[in-house]
Write a structure and sequence with these properties.
With 1182 residues, this protein is an all-alpha fold. It is 66% helix and 1% strand. It has a domain of 167 residues. The longest helix is centred in the last third of the chain and has 44 residues. It comes from Myriangium duriaei CBS 260.36.
Length: 1182
């Protein structure tokens, strides 16, 4: 048979007629053949028109001559061939008479060097296919590639026809396989049947093909393309090799003609080790598909052998025993077993040749394919692959640098652990790689990897393969900032919570014992029972996980007042976030009525009836709640009620056709009854939990959910409770929430009068307290007051600020109190307006030589001055709004005069403070906001010449200094490089004497701060940051492991703090930039071009949020172009600014929710020095 493949890796060559393809014929009918480049080819191969005998003799001679050469010499055969051709081409005088014909053939397109360079007519398509990232054209490619991708034949039909061609000519058929793989690589070069027959030269031939292919500078190749064509090509190639192996198995070729699969392995393994990435990856994918098919065959053989053996044993038993049939079945089993042994040997050979080298390939795509393939093999053929020797490869890839590889391994492991019968065989693997999987769940950079790791750990937990510390570490991820991670950990957390609940029930004797002794009471929702015990366990777990890292329990930073506050508006506690994640998967959270009854029940009472040792007494003891657990359940109650109301609203919003009239009426009744029950619940909860700021805040938030129409009957009681919370609590969040509730109540006409009366009462009582406190101190003197007096005054001023944000403060702040008719003991309040007192308090922010103090006192003083300035700013905005509402008529002279006076006084106060303070201080940004609001709000008063307001160059320069400081802080926190601005310096003035520069005070504060830098904070954490289990449990891990894990946890905390500081810096910058853009739009700045140019200086260097803020300047420019003219632009700017009294609340929420909580004075000393230098340059004009 021509072209036979033999084990000796050499076979007789075919005749010329058999070797030539029909596609190689010229148009004239003559046949052209591409030059041979193998070492076994002959140098002088100008014509191939000899008989078969001569051809065979020539090959035999060539083979003998080639045997005397070294392998290194054989590698140089191809270049020698080219040199000989070049020499013959140059010697035209010595050419034979047939030389012109040969030359003509070459000019017609016979390739001289690289096979991919075909005829001139085909040159254009080849260039087109050389473009990176394209899939070869099937019609032009020819061969198997064209049969598979260009014909209507199925892959099975193509394989069947190929098997027939293999029977006729083995080497030519195998060459088709190799060329098919080359085409899938995107390579246009080919191998011939002569190349295939000389297997020893496969490495050299593929080296030549690599050089030709690399000359095209192809970066992308077909199987990595994410296009439909690329995905289809890869899938079809894999399918082809699977069907090919299964087909030759069905035809017994795989066993009777072993040389076929051996030759395929030689070529594919050689390609898989190539330096060229397309060759290596494509051949690896094809090889993995071959192993897939072999695994299927081996599994079928094992199944057949086991089935035949079992049937044979059954045939020998019983009365109808058939020994002859049993003997035949035994032979079938033995034959299948022999076949399986052969397949196992082949699988091992392929695995050792391909997988072991490629699973750690430098190309991550190849590693991903290998990881995915090994997972399939373990599942498909566990007899061969389900052992520690192969599982360890999956474990090693868990530490791969590529996230896709790690993810593929996790998905494979999930499939394995889901098979209960495989758990015993995975125990050793689990012990070896458990810690790594836990680490991936907690710290991996990719969310999808973390989610899969958590899912895998849940399977390990159910199998009992996790340690208690591992369960706690994964359970704490319920507080993770990534929503997808929280959703992934919900099943793990709920299962862990269920285990804790079951252990508690077992401690009480089991559920049957509890039911027997307590009866229906055990499952009651009105008294201590199993539902309450389940809630107790939930609160206990959440509180324990939250206490593990209390500093990260809220995304907080230290504000100017020294308190830690939420740095973004409407950011709720982490328990609310957790409750939203758990709601749909936890029935006990969905039952808000049970939650409310549990919270209203006083669990601190002792056992009354019955023995204290009884089950009921023990259950009641178990249900006792700590103060922190009560807070956790209040937050969960908030989530439960909110979700319940949302579901009712969504149900009522559905199309009417989906519900009957009766269903709609029932739904309306349920909404009304729920609103009434929730409304009645709020006063009871405030009565029980109103003393603590955290719990009071959680209860006040419930008021947002309820429709106030449902509170009409009891709202007077609710208002009294809100007033009590506003006046008795010093927590700013509680006061903010109480003022929101009052503002919301003002929007309901039916409750308007009662609400206004309550607000008036609050004004009177707060102002009276404010004046009495100011009477005991000098309002204009910074420092010297006792801390309790300073704290009380700050809280009182903040109450004035909150009241000013929801109601017009003009009358209350401008009024001068009457002198008391009767003398009383103690110092009487000064007979001045609250405006004068607030102005004096605001001016205390200007530091001079006599007002130095420690860090805590300085922060408290800044907080007081900031709140006073905010209150004065709202007063100006309300006054401006009142005048604007009366336009176009002119306001009364007294009103205009009052606005001019208070506005000028406030601007003078703010600019003076900014001139004295460092632009990097938190209060500088807050006061800049107020200045910008004052100038922007005056845009509506341009029609009144007497009330117009123009920003001075000095004020603009001071604000730009603050902007520069904010930019530098963000750049320092994020490691970005920004352009230094060239800001005009304010007019020169004699510097005031200072005992200590404000910048120097900031540096000293930085040095004293425990969180001034990560390096300084680390020693304080070293003793407390590690979990108790890592410190005390020496049996679970060594001290080095514990210390390493503690270091990782400290690093994670430092990273979280650093990220939080970066977010705060970005928020401060964007808030200030937003107000500056608004001022530019209103035409309220001194130099619009200079400010706009300054805002755009670092537009592309400080993140997407800052870029979007500055982007509004483009909108202003476009609007100016469309309108045209200076007057039109001015009118457009006037329209851009609106001051409405109803929007005052929103303004203050932005100002204090986002800016007030950003007061971090923990910047690095180097950063402060840079800012101090910039300030000196700006002030002195140097």
């Amino acid at each position: 048979m021509p072209g036979v493949l033999i084990d000796a890796m050499s076979s007789p060559t075919a005749t010329a007629d058999e070797a030539v393809k029909p596609s190689d014929k010229r148009r004239s009918g003559r046949v052209s053949k591409r030059p041979e480049f193998l070492g076994a080819s002959h140098p002088a191969n100008s014509k191939r028109k000899r008989g078969h005998a001569e051809d065979g003799a020539e090959v035999e001679d060539g083979g003998s001559s080639g045997s005397d050469e070294d392998e290194e010499d054989a590698e140089d055969d191809e270049p020698d061939e080219e040199e000989l051709r070049e020499e013959r081409r140059a010697k035209k005088s010595k050419s034979t008479p047939k030389r012109p014909a040969a030359k003509k053939a070459k000019t017609n397109g016979a390739p001289l060097r690289m096979p991919i360079r075909s005829t001139a007519q085909k040159a254009r398509p080849s260039k087109k296919r050389a473009v990176a990232g394209t899939v070869p054209d099937a019609d032009q490619a020819g061969g198997l590639y064209a049969e598979i991708f260009a014909s209507d034949k199925s892959v099975e039909e193509v394989v069947s026809e190929w098997v027939q061609r293999f029977d006729e000519h083995e080497s030519a058929a195998l060459a088709e396989i190799v060329n098919f793989v080359l085409r899938c690589c995107g390579c246009e070069s080919e191998v011939t049947n002569y190349d295939v027959e000389d297997v020893d030269s496969a490495n050299n031939k593929l080296g030549d093909l690599q050089e030709e292919f690399q000359a095209q500078n192809v970066t992308d190749y077909p199987i990595i393309l994410r296009t439909k064509a690329g995905i289809t090509l890869k899938h079809t190639m894999e399918e082809f090799f699977k069907i090919l192996i299964k087909t030759i198995d069905a035809a017994d070729i795989i066993f009777t003609r072993v040389e076929l699969i051996e030759n395929v392995q030689v070529w594919l393994s050689t390609m898989s080790a190539a330096q060229n990435r397309p060759f290596r990856h494509t051949a690896t994918v094809a090889s993995l598909a071959v192993i897939d098919a072999l695994c299927d065959i081996g599994r079928d053989c094992a199944t057949t052998a086991a089935t035949a053996k079992r049937q044979g044993e059954n045939m020998r038993k019983g009365k109808g025993a058939n020994k002859k049939r049993a003997s035949g079945l035994d032979k079938d089993a033995e034959k299948a077993k022999q076949k399986q042994t052969f397949v196992d040997t082949a699988v091992k050979d392929w695995f050792d040749t391909i997988y072991i080298h490629r699973y750690r390939d430098i190309d991550p795509k190849i590693r991903v394919d290998c990881a995915e393939a090994l997972g399939r093999w373990i599942t498909t053929y566990p007899d061969e692959f389900f052992d520690a020797a192969h599982l360890r490869y999956l474990g090693w890839v868990l530490s791969d640098t590529n996230s896709h590889a790690r993810h593929e391994v996790l998905k494979s492991l999930i499939k394995l652990y889901e098979q209960k019968d495989r758990l015993a065989g995975l125990k050793v693997f689990t012990e070896r790689f458990r810690e790594r999987i836990v680490e991936m769940a907690a710290l991996d950079s990719e969310t999808s990897v973390r989610a899969s790791a958590i899912k895998l750990l849940n399977l390990l937990r159910s199998a009992g393969y996790l340690e208690p510390d591992d369960i706690d570490m994964v359970g704490r991820l319920i507080f993770d900032a990534d929503q997808r991670v929280r959703e992934a950990v919900v099943p793990f957390f709920t299962a862990s919570h269920g285990d804790i609940y079951e252990s508690k029930v077992e401690d009480l004797g089991g559920e049957d014992t509890i039911d027997e002794e307590m009866g229906d009471v055990a499952k009651s929702n009105d008294r201590p029972g199993l539902p309450w015990l389940k809630l107790k366990c939930l609160a206990e777990v959440l509180e324990a996980y939250d206490a593990f890292d209390p500093k990260m329990s809220k995304h907080t930073v230290q504000g100017s007042s020294g308190q830690f506050r939420l740095h973004a508006e409407e950011v709720e506690s982490r328990f609310v976030t957790v409750g939203e994640s758990l709601y749909h998967d936890t029935d006990i959270i969905q039952d808000w009525e049970t939650l409310a009854k549990y919270l209203l029940y006083d669990t601190s009472e002792g056992a009354q009836n019955g023995s204290a040792d009884g089950t009921a007494a023990q259950l009641k003891e178990f249900c006792k709640l700590s103060a922190r657990e009560e807070y956790v359940l209040l937050e969960l109650l908030n989530v439960s009620i909110r979700q319940h109301v949302t579901e009712l609203l969504e149900a009522s919003a559905e199309r009417k056709g989906k519900k009957t009239k009766r269903q709609r009426e029932d739904l309306a009744d349920e909404q009304e009854s729920s609103a009434r029950e929730i409304a009645n619940l709020i006063p009871q909860l405030l009565k029980r939990f109103g003393d603590s700021p955290d719990t009071a805040l959680a209860v006040l938030r419930l008021e947002r959910i309820v429709d106030l129409n449902a509170l009409s009957e009891i709202y007077k009681t609710v208002l009294d409770d809100i007033e009590k919370q506003f006046l008795t609590h010093g927590n700013e969040e509680v006061m903010t929430e109480a003022s929101r509730a009052l503002l919301r109540a003002r929007t309901y006409d039916e409750l308007g009068d009662e609400t206004e009366e309550k607000i008036e009462e609050l004004w009177e009582e707060t102002l009276d307290t404010f004046r009495r406190l100011c009477a005991s101190i000098d309002p204009s003197a910074r420092g010297g007051q006792p801390p309790n007096v300073l704290d009380g005054l700050t809280k009182t001023v903040y109450r004035l600020e909150r009241l000013s944000s929801i109601s017009n403060p003009t009358q209350h702040l401008s009024a001068v109190p009457e002198a008391p008719k009767t003398k009383s003991r103690g110092k009487q309040p000064a007979q001045v307006s609250a405006l004068e007192l607030l102005t004096a308090l605001a001016r205390r922010a200007a530091i001079n030589e006599d007002t130095q103090g420690d860090r805590a006192t300085a922060q408290a003083e800044d907080a007081l001055s900031s709140h006073a300035a905010q209150t004065l700013g709202f007063h100006v905005l309300w006054t401006t709004s009142t005048i604007v509402k009366g336009l176009p008529s002119s306001p009364p002279e007294s009103q205009s005069s009052h606005l001019l006076t208070i506005r000028a006084s406030l601007i003078s106060t703010l600019t003076s403070i900014l001139d004295h303070r460092s632009p990097s201080s938190p209060i500088a940004a807050e006061l800049s906001h107020i200045l910008l609001d004052l100038h922007s709000s005056a845009a509506h008063l341009r029609s009144l010449n007497s009330l117009t307001l123009t920003m001075s160059a000095t004020t603009q320069s001071l604000i730009l200094r603050v902007l520069t400081a904010c930019e530098r802080r963000l750049a320092a926190k994020t490691g970005k490089h920004i352009d230094a601005p060239r800001e005009p310096a304010p007019r020169k003035r004699r510097p005031r004497p200072r005992a200590q520069d404000d910048d120097e005070m900031d540096d000293a504060a930085l040095a004293a701060s425990p969180v001034a830098s990560d390096d300084e904070a680390e020693p304080q954490e070293r003793e407390t940051s590690a979990p108790p289990s890592l410190i005390s449990d020496s049996s679970s891990s060594s001290e080095s492991d514990a210390e390493e894990e503690a270091d990782e946890m400290r690093s994670a905390r430092r990273a979280a703090r650093h990220q939080g500081a970066a977010l705060v810096a970005e928020q401060r910058l964007c808030e200030l930039g937003g107000k500056m853009v608004l001022a530019v739009a209103a035409g309220a700045v001194a130099d619009e071009k200079a400010v706009s140019k300054r805002l755009e200086l670092n537009r592309a260097k400080l993140g997407a949020n800052w870029r979007e803020v500055v982007k509004y300047l483009d909108n202003l420019k476009e609007a100016g172009k469309k309108v045209g003219g200076k007057g039109a632009k001015k009118k457009e700017k006037e329209k851009a600014v609106e001051v409405e009294s109803e929007s005052s609340e929103n303004e203050v929420e932005e100002a204090e929710g986002e800016g007030e909580g950003e007061g971090e004075e923990q910047e690095q000393v180097e950063e402060e020095e840079e800012e101090r230098e910039a300030e000196v340059e700006s002030v002195l004009g140097d």
